[in-house]
C-alpha cells in the first residue's frame, strides 16, 4: 500500500503548510489514485513518538492530526512505499504547524522498513530558518521523484488528487497552480523558479480541478502556485476573467491570489486584471510584490524585476481599486511587499532606501497589507548560491527589520484594521495560557489574539480593540 506523508512545503510560488493544502500531496494522490493511498501528516508521525504534554499551550508540532495514533501505526506498518513530501525554501513563522526538516525525518523514519520516495522542494535542499545554509543529504531516501511533469498529466492528477481532501478532518485552503516558470528573460539572482520552462495551465483544466475540490469539501482556494498571477497566459485579461468568473461561480467561501510582479500590475492590462480580482475574488485578498529591495544598486546587481517608482505606482493602483472594505471586515484587495536581505550589493544605504520608499507610502495614505522581511537562503544552482557575496551588513538584519516593523508595519496595521473594525469568520487555531489566537482563511491573514479561552476550530466575529506589533488584539462580538 502507498502512503503519502505530508511534511509541508513552502516555496516562493506555492505554500503547503497547514491550513494550506499544497499541490504536492494532491498531485501524488492523483497519480496513485487506483492504489487508494493513505494520507498522513508529519504531525501524525510525530504523534507516534512519546512526547511531553503541553498543559497551557497548543502543541503545534502535533496539531494537524488526520487520525489516531493507533491508525497511524497500522498504516505505517502496512506501507510498502512511503511518498514523503517536504521542503521549505522560503521559511516563515507558522502559527499552527511546524514543517518537517531532513534531520527530523532521518530521526523518525530511518528504522521504518519500506521504500522511501522523496517528492517536493527538499530534493534541492530545505531550511526552516532564513540566513542559514540549506539542509541537504538524501541518504534516507531510496529515490527522488518530481511531480513537475507536463500539464496534460498534471491536469488529470489534479482532478483525481482532490479526493485526498476526504482524509483531512480539518478545514484547509487549497493552493492552486496556474503556471510555472518566469516570463522574464533574465532571472533574479536568488530564484529557482526561473530555471523552469514557462508554461500555463488552461483555465478549463483549472476549473475542472476546482470543481473536484469543491465536490470533496474544499471551501477555500488561493491561486498561489505561480510566479505572478497577473502574467497568466501572457497577461491577458480575458483569460484571467474566464478563470476568476468560473471560480467564483463554484461558490467557494474564499478565493485569493498571491504573487504579482509590480511591473506587470502597473500596465493598462494589469489595471484591468486588478479590477477583475476585486470583482471576482473575496475580501482580505493580497497581491504579494516580490520587491526584495528598493536600493537601485541591489536591483541591478541581482537582476530584480522592477524599479522603485514602478512599485510605488502599482501600490497606488491596487489601493485605489481594492482599498474598499469588504463584508468580512477586511479591505477587498491590497498589496503586500517582500523585502529580502543578503542580496548582492547590499550596504547600509539599502536599508535607508527601503525606509525612504516605505515611508513615502505611509505619508501618501496608502495601505500595505503586509511587509515580509526575511534573509535569503542561497540555494545551489542559483547565481547567488553558486557565487555568494561577502556582505558586511548581516549583523544589521534584526535592527533593520525591527525599524520597519515598528515605524511602518505597525502603522499600516492600524490603517488596515483600525480599532472598532469587526472582522468575521476568524477561526481560532492555538491557545497560549488564557489567550487564543486565530486567523481568517486566505492570503497572509492577520493574526487576531483574544484574551479569553475560545473554542479552537470555531469561527468567531471579532472586534479590533488594539494592535500588537504585527497582530490584532480583539474581543468576540455578535456576528
Ligand atoms: S521575477 Fe524574479 S523572483 Fe519572480 S519568478 Fe522571475 S526570477 Fe523568480
Structure description:
There is one protein chain. The protein has 479 residues and is α/β, with parallel strands linked by helices. It folds into three domains: 2-145, no CATH class; 174-416, Alpha-Beta Horseshoe (pyruvate-formate lyase- activating enzyme); 422-476, OB fold (Dihydrolipoamide Acetyltransferase, E2P) (Beta Barrel). Helices cover 31% and strands 23% of the residues. The chain contains 14 helices and 21 strands. The chain has helices at 23-31, 42-46, 69-78, 102-109, 151-161, 203-215, 237-249, 262-265, 268-280, 296-301, 308-322, 348-363, 383-386, 397-416, and strands at residues 2-11, 14-15, 20-21, 38-41, 81-88, 115-119, 143-145, 173-177, 179-180, 199-200, 220-225, 254-257, 259-260, 285-292, 333-341, 370-375, 422-432, 435-439, 448-450, 459-467, 472-476. The strands form five sheets. Strands 1, 2, 4, 5, 6 and 7 form a six-stranded mixed β-sheet that branches. Strands 17-18-19-21-20 form a five-stranded mixed beta barrel. Strands 3-8-11-12 form a four-stranded parallel β-sheet. Strand 15, helix 12 and strand 16 (370-375) form a beta-alpha-beta unit. The longest helix is centred in the C-terminal third of the chain and has 20 residues, at 397-416. The chain is globular and about 60 Å long. The model has no long low-confidence stretch (mean pLDDT 94). It binds iron/sulfur cluster. Iron/sulfur cluster (SF4) binds next to loops.
